[in-house]
Amino acid sequence: MASIDANPPSGTRDFLPAEVSRREHAFATIRTAFQRHGFEPLDTPAFERLEVLTGKYGEEGDQLIFKILRRGEHETTGEADHALRYDLTVPLARVAARYGSQLPTPFKRYQIAPVWRADRPGKGRYREFFQCDVDTIGSDSAVADASTIVAVADVLDALGLAGFTVQLNSRQALAGLIEAYGIPPQLADSTLVGLDKLDKIGVDGVAAELRDRGVAADAVEALVTDLGRDDLADAIRERLIANDVGRAGLAEVDQILDLVGEVPGGRVSYAPVMARGLSYYTGPVFEVVHEALDTTIAAGGRYDGLVGMFQGQDVPATGGSLGIERILLLLEQAAEGTPAPGPDVLVTVMDDAGAADAFATAGRLRRAGYTVDLYSGGGSRKLGKQLKYADRRAVRVAVIRGADERAAGRVTVKHLASGEQATIDDAGLEDHLAGLLGR
Amino acid sequence: MASIDANPPSGTRDFLPAEVSRREHAFATIRTAFQRHGFEPLDTPAFERLEVLTGKYGEEGDQLIFKILRRGEHETTGEADHALRYDLTVPLARVAARYGSQLPTPFKRYQIAPVWRADRPGKGRYREFFQCDVDTIGSDSAVADASTIVAVADVLDALGLAGFTVQLNSRQALAGLIEAYGIPPQLADSTLVGLDKLDKIGVDGVAAELRDRGVAADAVEALVTDLGRDDLADAIRERLIANDVGRAGLAEVDQILDLVGEVPGGRVSYAPVMARGLSYYTGPVFEVVHEALDTTIAAGGRYDGLVGMFQGQDVPATGGSLGIERILLLLEQAAEGTPAPGPDVLVTVMDDAGAADAFATAGRLRRAGYTVDLYSGGGSRKLGKQLKYADRRAVRVAVIRGADERAAGRVTVKHLASGEQATIDDAGLEDHLAGLLGR
């Protein structure tokens, strides 16, 4: 038994206290911000019946679903009947089908929860990781699309990630762009995949890629000329107003730009070649890029075809997803070196006879509003050992009361960062702590 | 596709927004209270390698473990290599083995997390349910045992469940009791199981059960005489001081009673025949009974043999577990009829032209500290529909601004519970809301 591998399973993580505290703090910030925008929390089981999940994520996705063996007499068959949640969208679709009439319309929900994928584990790629989704179902209005963007922006701002850009586009505007440059419909998706790489591979890279994908030389030429312009967005706007679908797409983008106004902590702008996945979205799409960090931290859009999957009808839906694991990593890096705050006070226990007194002191300080640890180790009660423990727990102040102090109605208070200590009258303890701890 | 069963898997639950809010609120209260006592949060993966879990819960428990199929090329073998977490204790033991030297000694942790068991679902019995554990590992001191009780009591008090009794006993005192009544060692466990039922089946029931279990008539007679006494605890104390192990057990109980003093919201007393499970515990044991509700809401004790399972050595450990699903049910029943609070404000959208104005108003009220929903439905913008939505969301105040009001710099504010409404100058909106919403 002693030889068992004590690591968590490959691709999963244990979170020790400091990390749990930081993650919980971020989750609480996100919840508060979404609620400030009228979104409600939802929670669903970790596993679903197998047939709810299979066939929803393509062949490759199906391979990554963790399947759970049937229990009881059927166990020996090796058959699976359940599977771990793979994302938060399919469970939302099931909830919409199950509770439709009990939910408000539109239904605005967020969910922060782990999902599981049997992916090959790698740097920053886990088999258990959190997703953070916000969605509005049952509304086809641009008001719902804009509300997502405003809420996501506010969440990022609340997390201390101001300085981002929301890049906005629409599937219709992209369809208009394909038409405007005379690209044949069968090359549309392929062309958009190429264009979407502009930020990564530059104009020349895109040109090469489009040629490789079979786009005619004159279309590539026209596109590349515009892609090289400083006023790219204006250039594309000019092209789009020449066709119906392009005009409709631009109107959709402009309506959302008008609604969102100044979003907290960032700015929203039209990103004419940002395509954001191809099969999933049906309307406006957005991507939130943190410029200083040069990374996408959230994304979303309208996907009217998905949520109705269990109802046999389209249900309009629009939403976004925060790259929460990436965001947590950024916050973790930003917090590097600043230890998670520990308890305000450690009450030491100097001898068995003083233990009940220590409990009474700890209770009194908790009632005064402090977080108070009480040294509960056995064996030697050496002060040095207890102070080392206090240091490890990032405790701010140690309260020490040996037999002499108890007899004299006194107490010693040691501020751990400065090392300063004072022995005071017991009755003055709360006032003294208020001075040391700033309240 | 439309015909799929949209219910959550048997034995699991979807939590709709009002319920998530209540559960999250309870979890937050518990976290805060445990932290106030110096306990730290820990989080571990939902699944473990199969060999970490098997053989830890007895044959019956092993049958209830949800096993996860190997992925990739091995899938077709029907073999399992992982399994869903069955409790929070085995993962704690693994964490202790893996990170021992990185953790403070003693290590005081709490964990609130779901576990999964393939039990036959029934009323109040789920296949996915939360556990809430608090444990101190690495201390053999009664200070640690008492700290658990004080923290658990404070948590229950913070949850609004005051009026409980902590029934305290110790495995040593129980061993002394067996000796004091001359019960042969091979009948010890069986006798304690019988005695533990006193509250349920009464003195006569216990007598019959002990006779059935083969306890000699004179021992049953002696026990039954004491069990019938009003001063049962004192009677048993008198018996226990006659033998060494009994005296040691009483000393352990009395030391803890001395340390815990007056616990918040309840009282602690010696419960001489409370046995609290047999194989698991090695020292003091406790059970928290809510008297008005006539139910056990928490329990725990010292279990020095378990946490070291992966280290090949005993690691002293003591802790407790809140019956969190039962507690959530009690809180849910208590909250029945009081709807979960919704957003402070709904900003209506009366027409497309007023949508950007509605976003601006919503943003302004969020900055003033209110939670603000904005009606994001498509189709008809009839006020009645929006007010019905507001009612469903338990919104407190609707802010309405049609074209006429916008032109006149006015806004209508409707208090939904009273139905009262007023049209005021836009500039006075925050002041007016402060009056209506009490801040």
The figure for the number of domains of chain A is 2
CATH superfamily of the largest domain in chain A: Bira Bifunctional Protein, Domain 2
Alpha-carbon distance between the termini of chain A?
50 Å
The total of beta strands of chain A comes to 16
Strand order of the largest sheet of chain A: 1-5-6-11-10-9-7-8
In the CATH hierarchy, the third-tier topology of the largest domain in chain A is known as: BirA Bifunctional Protein, domain 2
What is the average of the pLDDT values of chain A?
Answer: 93
So what's the CATH class of the largest domain in chain A? Alpha Beta
Which structural class do you get from the secondary structure elements of chain A? alpha+beta
Name the poorly predicted regions of chain A. none
Give the overall form of chain A.
elongated
How helical, in percent, are the residues of chain A?
A: 40-55%
Beta-sheet strand percentage of chain A? 15-25%
- CATH architecture grouping of the largest domain in chain A: 2-Layer Sandwich
Number of helices of chain A: 16
User: Biggest sheet of chain A, in brief?
Assistant: 8 strands, mixed
Main interface: chain pair and counts: A-B, 113 and 113 residues
> What is the gyration radius of chain A calculated from CA atoms?
29 Å
Instruction: Identify the quaternary structure here.
Output: homodimer
